[in-house]
Amino acid sequence: MSAETGDPWTDIPENEIIDWGEMWGTVIQFQYVYDPEVGNQAQTIEWDFGDGSPRSTEWNPRHTYEEYGTYIVVQHVTNTYEGFSEDWGYYRMTIMGKPYVEIVAPEGAPQMEKVYATKGTAPEQPDDPIWKGHEFLGYYADAEFTVPFDWTIPLDRAVTAYAQFQNASVIPDPDDEDPIDDEDPNGTDSKDNITAGIGEFFEQYGALTLGIAGGIVIAVFAIGVRHPVVLIVGIALLVIAALLKFGVI
Fold first, then answer.
1. E strand or H helix at 208, and its extent?
2. What's 145's domain CATH number?
3. How far is Cα of residue 56 from the mean position of the Cα atoms in its chain?
4. pTM for the full model?
5. Comparing C-alpha atoms, which of 125, 182, 169 is closest to residue 150?
6. Domain ends where: 69, 95, 121?
7. Residue 114 carries which DSSP code?
């Protein structure tokens, strides 16, 4: 390829640009490849990386881009064998930055940040996400959750991982009025509730209940069971009922 008019470094013919596509990472390794159709092997080479940095005369330069974006790289080679010849190459590429894992979660689940990694290295698996009322089952490489996502594979581009959840037993809010304690298999709380209920009953009706019981016992004594113990029990019940009634005990 050649530039016929203007400055070949800046007046770039659109129809001669070769699209290199997306480049992941910020450090790009360039390499000169001899094209036999051009003619003799190049004797000199010069690269313009399209980002305003100094040009390079290395054959296979390694260049770091400071910003993401699209750049046009210009390659110029010359040869003086049997006269002078030159060739211009134009290449468009988009610097994408570090590759990453984009995590897709179901609707309603907490959204997770991208996991970045240096190109050629494996990403670090994030902690299991927490979604109230759901159980996390794992990360998958497909939306159908058939292939587990492999966090040990080095990244050279952006990839997608899918987070799978399933509904779990709802854990009661501790602020709820009557929470159910799933960790009480022996029913301790139920027994406590029964005991509390009995206490409330006696607080309200204890005096009346004991008074009636005492009256019944004395009536039994009067009818015919004239054992002194029966009389003592009846009197004791009436006394306790009176003490409860007036708040003495």
1. helix 188-223
2. 2.60.40
3. 44
4. 0.53
5. 125
6. 95
7. -
218 and 238 Cβ atoms separated by less than 8 Å: yes
Partners of 87 in the beta sheet?
A: 77
33-36, Cβ contacts within 8 angstroms, sequence gap of 24 or more? 35/87
Can you give the pLDDT at residue 37?
63
Contact 196, 203 (CB under 8 A): no
Q: For residues 90 and 76, what is the distance between their CA atoms, to the nearest angstrom?
A: 9
Q: Looking at residue 140, what is its pLDDT?
A: 98
Here the tokens at position 125 are 């698996």
**What is the domain count for the chain?**
2
Distance, CA of 233 to CA of 210 (rounded, Å):
11
Q: How many CA atoms lie within 13 A of 52 on its CB side?
A: 2
In a domain, 243, yes or no: no
Residue 235 CB neighbour total at 10 angstroms: 14
Three-class SS state of 187: coil
In whole angstroms, how far apart are CA 91 and each of 13, 76, 87? 11, 12, 13
Domain span at 135:
100-167
The answer on 104 and 126 residing in a single domain is yes
The single-letter code of the amino acid at 144 is E
Residue 199 domain flag: no
> Which of 133, 173, 140 lies closest to 159 in space, CA to CA?
140
Q: What is the mean pLDDT of each run of 10 residues along the chain (249 residues)?
A: 69 94 93 72 92 96 96 93 86 95 95 93 95 96 97 95 87 55 54 62 66 72 70 74 67
